[in-house]
């Protein structure tokens, strides 16, 4: 999909949690790696007692639902998002946790003092940021010495590329936004952090009801040429690509830990 390099486009896409929930549900239902991407990410957080945590782009907050041990260990957790609607959903999702703070924050203008946080999280969101260098400079500023910046992202050989190839004969050529990926993220991070480590999450989809994948496609803001196709055409192509009732779709996700 084309890059979302302006604030209004991002706000429109994430004004509510509906589209994001649709995209998350297909992963929950059909992923072959049953650990779950969110659980895998959380397992990489370097948690220690009394630490201060800032998440930028928290989305629905679902990744924190079963993380009471981490939440209780922290002296302060601030979950932020660029979208007021998404932040409202996160507050509702995590209403049982009384020690989490919430704020609307733009990663390009983080409203906190220098060296405020031991762990800063920005998962699956840097590719939406208009000015990534400014964002990373802000993260570096508010991260304490010895702290860790965790940012998950996708690669350039995943779902969008698969779908573009599948529908190529219908004129679909759009692919994902490649401004921050597993392939180019390390180089960008190394300009601001001394150590950058990449970790890959092994996974794929095995879809048994292509209607769910069609819903996923129509939840996207990008890939407009694919979304312009009639639903029955999309279903026909997805069914034709299935083998014994299963459509196997590659995924490429991972994260960087930077210090």
Write up what this structure looks like.
- It contains eleven helices and nine strands.
- Strand 4, helix 6 and strand 5 (143-154) form a beta-alpha-beta unit.
- The protein starts with 6 loop residues before the first helix and ends with a strand.
- It has one domain (7-157, 175-204, 252-258): 3-Layer(aba) Sandwich (Rossmann fold).
- The strands form two sheets. Strands 3-2-1-4-5-9-6 form a seven-stranded mixed sheet. Strands 7-8 form a two-stranded antiparallel sheet.
- It is globular and about 55 Å long.
- It is 36% helix and 20% strand.
- The chain is of the alpha/beta class and 259 residues long.
- The protein has helices at 7-13, 18-30, 37-43, 68-73, 84-93, 132-142, 159-166, 185-189, 210-219, 224-227, 231-241, and strands at residues 52-56, 76-81, 100-104, 117-121, 143-154, 196-201, 204-207, 247-250, 253-258.
Question: What is the structure about, briefly put?
Answer:
The chain is an alpha/beta fold and 259 residues long. Helix content is 36%, strand content 20%.
């Amino acid at each position: 999909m084309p890059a979302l390099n302006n604030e209004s486009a991002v706000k429109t896409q994430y004004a509510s949690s509906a589209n994001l929930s649709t995209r998350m549900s297909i992963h929950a239902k059909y992923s072959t790696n049953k650990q779950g991407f969110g659980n895998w990410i959380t397992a990489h957080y370097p948690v220690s007692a009394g630490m201060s945590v800032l998440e930028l782009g928290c989305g629905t907050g679902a990744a924190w639902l079963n993380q009471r041990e981490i939440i209780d260990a922290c002296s302060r957790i601030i979950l932020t998002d660029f979208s007021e609607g998404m932040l409202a959903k996160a507050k509702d999702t995590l209403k049982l946790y009384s020690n989490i703070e919430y704020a609307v924050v733009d990663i390009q203008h983080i409203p906190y003092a220098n060296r405020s946080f031991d762990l800063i999280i920005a998962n699956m969101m840097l590719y939406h940021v208009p000015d990534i260098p400014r964002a990373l400079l802000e993260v570096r500023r508010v991260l304490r010495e010895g702290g860790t910046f965790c940012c998950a992202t996708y690669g350039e050989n995943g779902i969008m590329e698969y779908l573009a190839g599948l529908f190529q004969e219908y004129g679909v050529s759009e692919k994902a936004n490649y401004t921050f990926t597993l392939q180019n993220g390390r180089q960008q991070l190394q300009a601001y952090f001394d150590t950058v480590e990449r970790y890959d999450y092994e996974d794929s989809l095995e879809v048994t009801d292509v209607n769910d994948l069609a819903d996923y496609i129509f939840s996207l803001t990008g890939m407009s040429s694919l979304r312009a196709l009639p639903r029955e055409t999309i279903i026909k192509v997805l069914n034709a690509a299935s083998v014994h009732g299963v459509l196997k779709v590659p995924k490429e996700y991972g994260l960087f830990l930077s210090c």
